[in-house]
């Protein structure tokens, strides 16, 4: 059995910092939450949304699933974990922003791309990632001669757009967006460089929002600041 000691040590460190060094914050958070944004991210262990965005407790209402996907609005007797999370964030917490946070080297999108070759993806994964089947099909149609890696990177971005469109099928999301009470954002994070791109609805391109990190650029920034 794997040793979980490091997690327990981390909890003790967290308790010291959270309760010992900043008891006022602990008291405030215990009274309720008022996050600014709902962030829909991937389960990937390498991409922790709170860590990547350097957010404090209470800043983000985070929903994570395979490939950061949003299914279309559908009312039936099935279990709707993603939809219920979106409903709670929008209708009860009244967040002002929803961020669909995709990333490079996504295993879920890799499974989606492999499914085009008839490769199975487990009991549940294949059906789940098929939410973005239109993104896969578009990439294969428009980039038939590109490498599998380039196709996967393109599909990762295109699947973000699928989720943004699906968000607008939720009536209470669409209503708040139309009234200017809610904004939707599509972000794409390159885990190899740290670069962050956002989807510009005017240009219909993913444009650089935060440049990739390098020691040289950091030193130059410090000299000019």
What is the straight-line distance between the termini?
Answer: 50 Å
Query: Largest beta sheet, briefly?
Result: 6 strands, mixed
Order of helices and strands: HHEHEHEHHHHHEEEH
Mean pLDDT: 92
In percent, how helical is the residue content?
40-55%
Overall SS class: alpha/beta
Reading off the top of the CATH hierarchy, the class of the largest domain is best stated as: Alpha Beta
**Strand tally, please?**
6
Q: Note the beta-strand portion.
A: 15-25%
Oligomer: single chain
- The fourth-level CATH homologous superfamily of the largest domain is Carbonic anhydrase
Overall radius of gyration:
19 Å
What's the total helix number?
A: 10
Number of domains: 2
Write the CATH fold name of the largest domain: Beta-carbonic Anhydrase, Chain A
Task: State the low-pLDDT regions, or none.
Answer: 220-225
User: Do you know the CATH architecture of the largest domain?
Assistant: 3-Layer(aba) Sandwich
Overall, the morphology is globular
Which sequence of strands runs across the widest sheet? 2-1-3-4-5-6
């Amino acid at each position: 059995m794997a040793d979980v000691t490091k997690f327990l040590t981390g909890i003790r460190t967290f308790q010291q910092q959270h309760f010992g060094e900043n008891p006022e914050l602990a008291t405030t958070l215990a009274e309720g939450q008022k996050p600014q944004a709902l962030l829909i991210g991937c389960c990937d262990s390498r991409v922790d949304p709170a860590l990547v965005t350097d957010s404090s407790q209470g800043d983000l209402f985070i929903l994570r699933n395979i490939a950061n996907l949003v299914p279309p609005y559908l009312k039936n007797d099935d279990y709707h974990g993603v939809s219920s999370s979106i409903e709670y964030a929008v209708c009860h917490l009244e967040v002002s922003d929803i961020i669909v946070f995709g990333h490079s080297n996504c295993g879920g999108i890799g499974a989606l791309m492999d499914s085009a070759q008839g490769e199975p993806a487990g009991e549940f994964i294949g059906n789940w990632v098929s939410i973005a089947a239109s993104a896969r099909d578009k990439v294969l149609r428009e980039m038939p001669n590109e490498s599998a890696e380039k196709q996967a990177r393109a599909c990762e971005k295109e699947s973000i757009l699928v989720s943004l469109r699906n968000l607008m099928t939720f009536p209470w999301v669409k209503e708040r967006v139309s009234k200017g009470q809610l904004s939707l954002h599509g972000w794409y994070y390159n885990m190899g460089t740290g670069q962050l791109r956002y989807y510009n609805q005017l240009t219909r391109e993913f444009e650089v929002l935060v440049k990739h990190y390098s020691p040289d650029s950091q030193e130059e920034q410090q000299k000019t600041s």
